[in-house]
Amino acid sequence: MQRDIKHAWFFKHPVEMVWEYLTKPDLLAQWLMVNDFEPVVGHKFMFGTKPKIKLGFDGRVYCEVLEVVPLKSLTYSWKGGPGDGKIRLDSVVTWTLTPKDNGTELLLEHKGFKGIENYLAYFFMNEGWRTKIPRQLAKLMDLAEPVTQN
Description:
This protein has 150 residues and is an alpha+beta fold. The protein has a single domain (2-143), classed as 2-Layer Sandwich (Alpha-D-Glucose-1,6-Bisphosphate, Chain A, domain 4), CATH 3.30.530.20. 27% of the residues lie in helices and 39% in strands. The chain has a seven-stranded antiparallel sheet with strand order 1-7-6-5-4-3-2. Strand 4 (60-69) and strand 5 (73-80) form a beta hairpin. It is globular, with a radius of gyration of 15 Å. The protein starts with a strand and ends in a 7-residue tail after the last helix.
């Protein structure tokens, strides 16, 4: 059995600003995790956070950029494990940005939570994505300088 996460939000900010918070490592680190991300297809990067050993998470997420359509969509692999070299979660994250009147719709799809061994990861990540984005990302963008639209 496979579970997938899907959430959508509306932000009162332009697509350019939302894109920056998804693709600039320093901005991404402010609301998600420390990283060495670059929006270049094939770039391998890592997210890092505090390990949760009891949950089988070593604090590292191994990723590779799979697709970049500037200001429209971003897709990367999301792989995690307990640190013993064995990947337990092999999933894919896709962000889709849609310009709307007075803002941006942001769609998150996180697919690939297979089997019972990934149920806890699915449960915690679903809740984390659901709450972290509207609370932290929106707050940061509200405090940021406006992005100049061309």
